[in-house]
Design brief:
- By secondary structure, the chain is α+β, with helices and mostly antiparallel strands.
- Among the domains are: 58 residues; 119 residues, L,D-transpeptidase catalytic domain-like, CATH 2.40.440.10.
- The protein contains six helices and nine strands.
- It has a five-stranded mixed sheet, sandwiched between helices.
- A hairpin with a 4-residue loop joins strand 1 and strand 2.
- Helix 3 runs parallel beside helix 5.
- The longest helix has 19 residues.
- The chain is globular, with a radius of gyration of 43 Å.
- Keywords: Cell shape, Cell wall biogenesis/degradation, Peptidoglycan synthesis, Signal, Transferase.
- Pathway: Cell wall biogenesis; peptidoglycan biosynthesis.
- InterPro entries: LD-transpeptidase, LD_TPept_cat_dom, PGBD-like_sf, PGBDSf, Transpep_catalytic_dom.
Length: 289
């Protein structure tokens, strides 16, 4: 009986050891591979979307610690300075200063009628008001008082127009400088309408130089070939005439089909001054036509 006790103890220990090991050991595959029963790594990644390495917008997770660490307080947002603008503005003027400031000041002083300007190349409140008034008069967009390329171009064309080159005689004469793209009106040798901007025929449709007479007028004429209304129409030759522009006048990439395009206020004024029989004189040639 004494010899049987060690045997029982050995058998009991063997049974406990066998069942304890079986709880952590994977079930063997049919072909004897001990890895059977585990989900392959790639399959797990496809199902869960998890990757073996972090992506460019991911961070590796830190190893967890027993005691939580204190995080630094989030800094309060501070006001950042705005990026400097490409154009400068005088605090007193409220207008941005353009790259043609001094030239525009010079031309506006020469033209007159838009308010006082100081020819010094620096924007001021008075300069700003004068440039804005000029831009509004000739529909230069946006009218913000900045002496940019369009404002410079229009001011230069108007200031350098020689009204005497029209050689107008007696009666009313409509004059067009095709080279500068300006137009004005004279009566008995005197200017009754100052030069203003216009746009004539584009390449392939050049408006011809010469002397003509207005032979037909209509407050609102319909253009058959181009299917558009022509307000304040005054015809003078070959289907060409004065009329209010139907597009942005300062877009030089386009032009008319030979007509003399006018701003709305100028079209009305020339309608009031003109009549059948009024002389039309065109000099020069539009560049590029």
């Amino acid at each position: 009986m004494r010899k049987s006790r060690p045997t029982v103890r050995v058998l009991t220990l063997a049974a406990i050891t066998l069942f304890g090991a079986g709880a952590c050991t994977p079930e063997p595959r049919k072909d004897g591979d001990p890895a059977a029963g585990r989900t392959p790594v790639r399959v797990a990644e496809q199902k869960t979307g998890a990757g073996g390495s972090p992506g460019p917008d991911q961070r590796k997770r830190p190893t967890p610690t027993v005691a939580p660490t204190r995080s630094k307080p989030t800094p309060k947002p501070t006001a950042s300075r705005p990026a400097p603008r490409t154009t400068t503005a005088s605090p007193a003027s409220g207008c941005p200063q353009g790259e043609h400031q001094r030239a525009v000041e010079t031309y506006l002083a020469q033209l007159g009628g838009f308010g006082p300007v100081t020819v010094d190349g620096r924007q001021s409140a008075a300069d700003c008001a004068a440039i804005k008034k000029f831009q509004q008069r000739y529909d230069i967009r946006p009218a913000v008082g900045r002496a940019g390329p369009t404002t410079y171009d229009v001011a230069k064309r108007l200031a350098t127009t020689d009204v005497r080159a029209c050689r107008a005689g007696s009666g009313t004469t409509f004059c067009i400088d095709l080279t500068r793209q300006t137009t004005w009106a004279m009566r008995d040798g005197k200017v009754i309408m100052k030069p203003t901007v216009t746009r004539t025929g584009m390449p392939g449709y050049a408006t011809p130089a010469g002397t003509f007479k207005i032979n037909f007028r209509n407050v609102k004429e319909w253009s058959d070939p181009y299917e558009v209304w022509l307000p304040y129409w005054q015809h003078f030759t070959q289907g060409m005439g004065f009329h209010q522009t139907t597009t942005y006048l300062h877009d030089k990439a386009i032009g008319s089909h030979g007509c003399v395009n006018l701003l709305p206020a100028d079209a009305v004024r020339m309608w009031e001054l003109g009549k059948v029989g009024t002389t039309v004189k065109l000099i020069g040639r539009r560049p590029g036509t």
